[in-house]
Amino acid sequence: MISAIFNYEFLQNAFFSGLIIGVIAPLLGVFIVVRRLSLIADALSHVTLAGIAGSLYLSQTVPAFALLNPIYLGIVASVSGSILIERLRSLYKHYEELAIPIIMSGGIGISAILISMAQGFNQDLMSYLFGSVSAVSRQDLYVVIGIALVVIVFLFFMFKELFLLSFDEEFAKASGLPAKWVHLTFMVVVALVIAASMRIVGILLVSSLMTLPVAAAMRVAKGFKQAIIYSIVFGELSVIVGLVAAFYLDLAPGGTIVVTSIIILLLVIIGKRMMLAFAAKGDSTV
């Protein structure tokens, strides 16, 4: 695949998009997992699916939308979903978790209706659901790069605020931190990453890339910064191995990337247990 990258533009688009997503998805995923918001990524992915299905339907019925990249309407839907989740969380102050199934259910319902109206599943929609190596265009790559820059700038200026909100939200609010707006902005950035990742990982599997590398990293990391580094390493490894496997085996890259992430997680868990067992055995012999 490495040699083919220099010959085929679609492989260049897929590979470089995957490398970027392998960084930004686990990077935000650390904050998502620490704040116990893992299911929000699933909810936003289903809302994104509604946007994609809507765009495909409009392309069939309105000629002006035929040339519109579905990723744009997917981004609009994902960002709108993140804002709605925050509004519902503030409405149900004592039952904030209700916002997630409400938005997820709405996304699934609207997606089902639009998919039916768009004459069911087709090859374009399947590539958005599970990813596709050949479907990533140069325009998609530019969108991924732009969103990656937004993520980097956001984390550069808001890292301390996010860190404080993640570990001591009450103190953050008491110290005058605008927690509501920081969290809303964070949710919008997460929505952007989910929308950007769908071409490679697929809408239904993108949340896995935001959580599985983090789950593996938390087994070996000794601090928050180490967790971030290990998450990115595991995320990049999953993307590279997954894309290579998808290319040579002609499989959906979303599936191969997620399965690779699961294998890495299992290896980390087994390796950690073996290390603890050897350490305990060494202590007992002493």
TrEMBL record:
The keyword Glycoprotein does not apply. The keyword Amino-acid biosynthesis does not apply. It is a multi-pass membrane protein. It holds the Pfam family ABC-3. One of its GO terms (biological process) is response to zinc ion. Coiled coil: none annotated. Its main location: membrane. The chain crosses the membrane at residues 14-34, 39-58, 64-86, 98-121, 141-159, 227-248, 254-271. It is found in: Cell membrane; Membrane. It comes from Caryophanon tenue. One of its GO terms (cellular component) is ATP-binding cassette (ABC) transporter complex. Belongs to the ABC-3 integral membrane protein family. This is Metal ABC transporter permease. Keywords: Membrane, Transmembrane, Transmembrane helix, Transport.
